[in-house]
Amino acid sequence: MHSSIALDGLRVxxxxxxxSLMDLAKVGATAKGGVCRLALTExxxxxxxxxxxxxxxxxxSVTVDQIGNVFMRRPGRANDRPPVMMGSHVDTQPTGGKxxxxxxxxxxxxxxxxxxxxxxxxxxxxxxxxxxxxxxSRFVPVMMGSGVFCDVFPLELALAxxxxxxxxxxxxxxxxxxxxxxxxxxxxxxxxxxxxxxxxPVLEDHAKVIGVVxxxxxxxxxxxxxxxxxxxxxxxxxxxxxxxxxxxxxxxQEVVAIAERYPPHGRGTVGFVQVHPxxxxxxxxxxxxxxxxxxxxxxxxDAMDADLRAFIRRMQxxxxxxxxxxEVSYNEPVHFHESCVSAxxxxxxxxxxxxxxxxxxxxxxxxxxxxxxxxxxxxxxxKDGISHNEIEHAEPEHVTAGANVLLHAVLExxxxxx
Amino acid sequence: MHSSIALDGLRVxxxxxxxSLMDLAKVGATAKGGVCRLALTExxxxxxxxxxxxxxxxxxSVTVDQIGNVFMRRPGRANDRPPVMMGSHVDTQPTGGKxxxxxxxxxxxxxxxxxxxxxxxxxxxxxxxxxxxxxxSRFVPVMMGSGVFCDVFPLELALAxxxxxxxxxxxxxxxxxxxxxxxxxxxxxxxxxxxxxxxxPVLEDHAKVIGVVxxxxxxxxxxxxxxxxxxxxxxxxxxxxxxxxxxxxxxxQEVVAIAERYPPHGRGTVGFVQVHPxxxxxxxxxxxxxxxxxxxxxxxxDAMDADLRAFIRRMQxxxxxxxxxxEVSYNEPVHFHESCVSAxxxxxxxxxxxxxxxxxxxxxxxxxxxxxxxxxxxxxxxKDGISHNEIEHAEPEHVTAGANVLLHAVLExxxxxx
Lengths: 418, 418
Description:
Two copies of one chain form a homodimer.
Chain A: H1 4-8, H2 14-25, H3 42-57, E1 61-64, E2 70-74, E3 84-89, H4 102-117, E4 126-131, H5 144-149, H6 155-160, H7 169-176, E5 191-197, H8 202-206, E6 210-216, E7 218-227, E8 231-232, H9 244-261, E9 267-269, E10 273-276, E11 282-283, E12 286-295, H10 298-319, E13 322-331, E14 334-335, H11 338-351, E15 355-360, H12 365-369, E16 375-380, H13 396-414
Parallel strand pairs in A: 3-4, 3-5, 5-16, 6-15
Antiparallel strand pairs in A: 1-2, 2-4, 6-14, 6-16, 7-12, 7-13, 8-11, 9-12, 10-12
């Protein structure tokens, strides 16, 4: 049965995967059909326990590292080879959905269950991983578990991070029983594959089932503060004003204009705005706002940054109003390893699913994993492109298709024992 | 000594007036040199008590009405004539200054003290009034006492108004001992004069001592809500966005453009902005903001309103984003009675002060009084045009000059007994 013809016909059990997704979604289920399972809460602990119980039932051995990442291992024939890893995260946003993260972990588990069903042994061992605190809703930095694993930031910094109630990551890991013994990052990885809902509308717009993810947009976050002069809206003639909001709104529009000058992957967003004193009859004295600029190409991304800085210099010179621009975060664009991208593409083609190349706007644990091992991602559509929302939804047939792609890409990479 | 030559030489005692301003400013004094004496607080009660004690010492009879307005009366020779009234308010903003309001009441008291010094009797009686809750910081509506007196809104509505702690105007008036017996508005008034700091920069810019106030800008307040579609800043391509902030910022800039199209008195301000969900990596789904449009000419003011509505219709048609504009407040422009404006102008000219015609941007108790009696205002400069601020400042020589103008305008109106 291990002939290539038999392998080509191998498929996951879609109903079993869907059932596990729905069962896991009961832990922290919200009235509106979503999930609230913030990282390292008691509910996160219960969600992890459920996944681990399924892993043990599937014969996997479970290891937890010091930042709470959970590695669930199925041996291969050549156990000296580094494992092919699949996974994502099971923590959610406060008003999150059933699929974001959870899908990547449970699709990995379904791959294992399918191999068990058919008694297929791989050459390299396989591992399913659930990374700690990808969402960053309760503790920053985001993508914490994979970040520590990949040495992006130190373990001690992550363990000391506190939530708004002053509870630390270290204490909460112990509380839920996931402060493991293994030093993060000591585990070799041969390749990493992450299945995920797209969280955007592009696959749906193009009526494609699978997105072969080639890259993740680079990201620059800035804080911008415009300082004018607070004064009375009735008493101050127009020509005497230093209205911080009027200058700020020009910059806010330029952020979008810059993104539109660098298509197709240029993106520019102002999501956060704070006006001081924010009173109906007072001309704003100060406006603080966020700027988010993204692109997949490093030179274009840098050019967007240069355009923004030049515009701000011109505005400052023209208005005499003080403008402070500070970069607060930078992630460079990530281009996934060609061997993994093509493994996903070949699997999709063999399975006959409609597909297109995809670029991820949001970050994922795969972004950090790409620093330490060849990495690929599989996207499936989500309804109306909506994610981080209780109404997040994916079609069962797409959920199954993505897991089948994951299965075949992983088998190609790990090799099947003769 | 009552010859016209002696009267022409009559001047207030500037040091006495300044001393009273500084003494009253001690009640509720803030560390930064300002005053916090919110309407109907225990501090407001102590401030009122101090003013009333000075009035009694000056021989005035004191009457309080049911909304707490305090009328301090000096009889004339013809007591069947309606009084010439001077005044303003003694409540302040939470971070208010020493001059806003207080100056108008104490300048009136200084006029009385000066007439007492020289034993000058007027034909008509004189009254100094302190109106309740002009600022509106603790209770709305603003200009409450004069509004009830002038029948702009009912007494019962004002008495029922509550602060954020749920305390009512009626209860707080009783607590501080200023729930008087007189039905508001039953008191005849022959004319009303209010001295006030300009609260804007125009007099200072033109190096003039006195502003002869001819009018108060009309005001329209709107709430505007722009509703787009909240989505992920990374995952949503530019052409797929319905970014509420990008539409809102275009309207915010048009508000200023409209004001600049209707000079010299057109004013347009967006002071309040609220973005939802106001998160760095989420495209804003909804933006709520205030719009404030003012002009002194009714037709021009209406044209500004029409321009705003036309622009919003065009934006709605072009972007497909929902825009809701609601007018929440309208005060029509007020043009003061020519007899009172010219009385102020003549007094200023006789006294030899530099002066210019002035238009008030902010509202004042005089706006409501102009509905029931001939009304005039005297403006003096304030430093850098700053008011509603603890650093609010007026020069002693300007404080004296404004009181002298008030004295002579009132004497002209009331007539001096032979």
